[in-house]
Each structure stands twice: as structure tokens, then as C-alpha cells.
Amino acid sequence: MKPDFALILDPERITLRHRNGDGWHEVGSVSLDDPDWAERLGYLQQSASSLSPGGMATKLILPNSQILYTTLPAPGPDEESRRRQIEEGLDGLTPYRVEELVYDWCLPEGEEGIGTGRQSGQVRLAVVARETLEEAEAFAIERQFNPVCFAAVPPEGCFGAEAFFGPTESARRLMPPAALPERERACGESVREPGGAEQGADRGSDRGGAAG
Question: Is the predicted pLDDT of residue 208 greater than 60, yes or no?
Fold first, then answer.
């Protein structure tokens, strides 16, 4: 499933967007400098509930200030080897232990999958601390936005249409595996992208064991 709401958690402002047939539209935003921001955020939640009376599901868009975007060598030759190489490369790269991180990866633009002969041996990574996800989920649950997954919209040219960090813990507990949220695979589906072509590069993410 793909949630119909996105809560964009920028450092200075929280914005709620709603997806309909022709893309994402802003429901409203709240400045965190506003002394009444909590009350105004409650109004946004009420607006979302009126737009989706059958129940809302929200994607949490993390601020890029909380994401490490980097490139690491991970030539494979298979997916299990590539995952191990990524996690070895992450060891010592941040103040966190590898198991305290969650990551998404993709191949550089124009490259294809393992075994195609069109590889530099590099992968692009988006990395976030697991505690950041936990804090964002707790914030959204407290304010009744029903968060179901985590994502980020990377700066242009450094990753892809969307970095996807998987379902929230509450979604994992309450939803069957087949109903869990999916990554947005087309540029046009990304919360901040008005349109674009389908992404062709291989991508992957991992939330279990070590890095996510």
C-alpha cells in the first residue's frame, strides 16, 4: 500500500500533504516558531481525518539534516555480499554502531543490477539513526497521524526519487505483511517531485539485524 498522507518534518516547519489522482497537494503547514504550533497541528490532523473518513495512513518524511548521504564500494557479486559490504563500510562512519542505523541504497544513475557488466562497484546510500525513526514515529502517534512508514526526499542528484526506510513499528504490529507500505518507485510519486520518469536503478533497504 501507499499512504495517502505525508507529514514533512522539516526543522522549522511541519507540512501535511495529501495524495489524490493528480499528485500531492498541501493540506497545510505549521511553523515551529508559532507558540500555538501544537494546536495548529491538531487542526491539520482534523483536516486529514475529514479528507479520509475511513482512516488515514501517513508517510513520515524525515529532514535531510538527519540523513547521511554517501557512496561506498559494494560490488557484490550477489545481494548478500553487497549487503555485507555496505555494513562493513558503515562501521565507524557515524557515531552510531551499525545495528543502530537504518539505510537505503541504490546504484548510481545509469547502472544496472548485479551481473549485467554495467557497474562501478559503488552504491549510493541514505543512512539514518534508528533512534531518529523512533522519535519521529512517537511524535506522529502522539498527534494521531497514524504513521505507517519512513522516507526522505534527497537533494537532487545524490540518491533518487525517494529514500525509503521501511514501515514503522506500529505498522508492523498492526498490518499484515502484504499490506505494509511500499517505496515510491516513480519520481512523480515522490512527495516533492511534480513529475518524472520511472527509476531504473536497483534499490534496496534493510531495517533488520544491523543497518536498516
Answer: no
